[in-house]
Transcriptional regulator, Crp/Fnr family (Runella slithyformis), 195 residues
Amino acid sequence: MESAFDSLKQVIFSLQPLSEVDWEAFLLIWKPFSAKRKEILTVAGAKEKYLYFVVEGVQRVYYFDDQQREATTVFTYAPSFGGVIDALLLQQPSRYSYETLTSSTFLRASYHDLQLLMQSRPPIESFVRQGITGALSGVLERLVELQCFSAEERFRCLLQRSPHILQLVPHKYLANYLGMDATNFSKLINKVRME
């Protein structure tokens, strides 16, 4: 698990270096955790208890409504943070579910431990705020893509942002994420490969 902590440190220090004392305090709140394929880590309607750091595997956050419609909103994979962040920080029931698509290993920190650390260590609170701001920026960018771009433009943006995603995530989930049916998604893959 030492390499998992090294990976966590690399991600954090690339965004905002911490003092050795702050890093050691931050490190103490993270515990190893693993989950099987297709395991729901956060159930819609429940509070998010953990912030996850993905070490291995692929996960998704999705919304499921009372008309049986599903919308995949986010994919997470190593090395990145995961979970339903708004439900975690607001400590309100989640509107979304967080599910593993493959067997996954994580480091995870409880809301309680993270909150205490943010209150007592301003550089850690600043790092968390910076991470949330980056995530919000990504959400706003994605909203523009969904509202203004064609299906092909959305597909190309996804490949530009995450060129490896076609190998990581089952295509039915990618199609759902892009707001298109699986048949059109397959046509786009074939079109882009031939160019």
